[in-house]
Structures are given as C-alpha cells and as structure tokens.
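1st attempt posting a full record on here, be nice pls
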Amino acid sequence: MLRTPLVLLLAATTACASPVDAQAAEDSGAHCRLFRAIEQETSAGLGRLIDPVTRLSAIDLACADQVIHFRQELTIPEAALRPGWLARHRAHWSATYCRPGSAFEAAIRQGWTVATTITTSDGARFRLTAQCQSTAAIGTPSAT
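the predicted structure (as tokens):
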C-alpha cells in the first residue's frame, strides 16, 4: 500500500483578536510562511524515493492562490496498481491533511488547497485534493 510520507507539521495557527477579514489575511500569511518552511525543508529530498515505488518530484507553493501542490511519480505503471488503489489513496490523503487541530486542516478550512498529482511510469495522472468536510478527497484521473 502506498503511503503519503510527506513532511507533516502539526502546528496550530495563532488567532488574533481582530475582524474576521483581517484574521483570515493574517492566518493566510501564517499558513504561507509555514508551507514555505515545509517546502524548503522537503525540497532537499526531491528526486529521491520516499517509499519503494514513489518519488517526490516537486512541491509547488502559490501563496496568492492559497495552494500547496505536491507532485509524485510512481516507478510502476498504472496496470500494477491494486484494485481500489485510488479510493484508498484519496481517503488516506484527506485523513492525513485533515487531522483535527493541525495547521493543514486549519488552512484547508480557510480556503487553502492541499493537493498532489501522482504520475505513473506509463504517464497516467491522478490528482488528489484534501477535503476536510469529511475524510474523503477528490481524486480524478488527469488528462495527459
């Protein structure tokens, strides 16, 4: 079973006593700084296998768009994925990033997107987006 071995930082974001819009802007800035630190820390390992079949190939952070996007490559073709792989992986993706009280969960609830695109060795692509309303994620094949 494939796991999501990405760096998880479960720090709580700080709240301030200010109007909601100002707090959201401050929180967004705090999330951006946190995700930038994760991006920088994790970037040193880009290109290496993070489990027996998965290579973390890139992390894209777009603070203005409130998106952190991990790109992963599998060393196996789509046909080698076990039945139900996508459903299990999307459930795991959301469960990982929607842990109650985590910085990722707070960011997602404030409009951030935490996504990954997984590309198999034969070019099939799957995009997963963490959804915290439930522990399910949206996972759909991407056009190649």
